[in-house]
Structure to design on (286 residues):
């Protein structure tokens, strides 16, 4: 064959492309289990850090196997709930087949109305006390931001938090992960399940004595706004679950008699009993 012909060039190029593609596909398939294991261990590390079960310096010394083992030792149960706070199914917590709900981007779309969300709840044991860990996910300045917030047994107090990002500015927005003092502010705070906004990251500083707010990071306004929105969007989706844990009552107006109150009071929209007299606004107890 004439090595200077166009036909030779096309055939040679095609063969090289096929060989390179095959090698890359083989490498990708070979490395995928390792990549998946790294992602799983990193996700679990973030939850363990949020729950204050392992400090960050110790986590850095642990390999993937140690992280998975610590998770299996510490977790009591893990499960998915729907938008009404009802349990959908259990997640496997055995060390050899740990199941995580790490599709946070997809669930973020569902929370915003694309479908019915399946929200993960991870329950850990810390010195005999239950710790509930819930994820959050949203958009920062340059890409996604996400994290985990840990609550005490009745979800009345935050015990810790961990946040991460994919590309926030080093020394500014990246401090949501890199600055321990930012995350430490969340410990001891609480969320307001009866309000329209459950929690706040306040530019310029949270009001003194505020139980549901922390200081924003100076110079990272957009990242903090994105994280604030992520926290409120996700915790709002967890409202029914959080309210149940807290023993709080979520009320919703059902309308007066003759204004579709029957459907609501019958357990339709609200899913509970209805208080109030005819001619007044009924309140639905959940």
């Amino acid at each position: 064959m004439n090595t200077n012909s166009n036909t030779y060039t096309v055939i040679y190029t095609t063969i090289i492309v096929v060989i390179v593609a095959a090698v890359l596909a083989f490498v990708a398939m070979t490395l995928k289990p390792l990549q998946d294991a790294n992602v799983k261990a990193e996700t679990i590390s973030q939850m363990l850090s949020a729950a204050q079960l392992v400090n960050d310096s110790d986590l850095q010394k642990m390999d993937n196997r140690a992280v998975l083992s610590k998770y299996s030792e510490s977790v009591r149960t893990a499960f998915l709930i729907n938008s009404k706070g009802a349990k959908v199914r259990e997640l496997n917590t055995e060390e050899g087949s740990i199941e995580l709900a790490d599709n946070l981007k997809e669930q973020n779309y569902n929370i915003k109305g694309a479908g019915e969300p399946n929200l993960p709840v991870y329950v850990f044991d810390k010195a005999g006390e239950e710790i509930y860990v819930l994820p959050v996910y949203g958009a920062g300045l340059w890409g996604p931001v996400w994290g985990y917030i840990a609550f005490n047994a009745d979800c009345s107090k935050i015990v810790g938090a961990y946040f991460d990002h994919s590309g926030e500015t080093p020394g500014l927005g990246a401090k949501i992960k890199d600055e321990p003092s930012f995350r430490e502010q969340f410990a001891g705070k609480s969320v307001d399940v009866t309000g329209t906004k459950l929690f706040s990251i306040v530019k310029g500083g949270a009001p003194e004595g505020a139980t549901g707010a922390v200081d924003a990071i100076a110079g990272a306004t957009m990242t903090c706004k994105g994280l604030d929105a992520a926290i409120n969007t996700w915790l709002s989706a967890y409202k029914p679950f959080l309210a149940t844990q807290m023993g709080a009552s979520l009320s919703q107006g059902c309308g007066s008699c003759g204004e579709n109150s029957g459907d609501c009071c019958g357990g339709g929209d609200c899913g509970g009993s209805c208080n109030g007299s005819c001619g007044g606004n009924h309140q639905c107890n959940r």
Notes: Confidence is low (pLDDT under 50) at residues 252-286. The two ends are 81 Å apart (CA to CA).
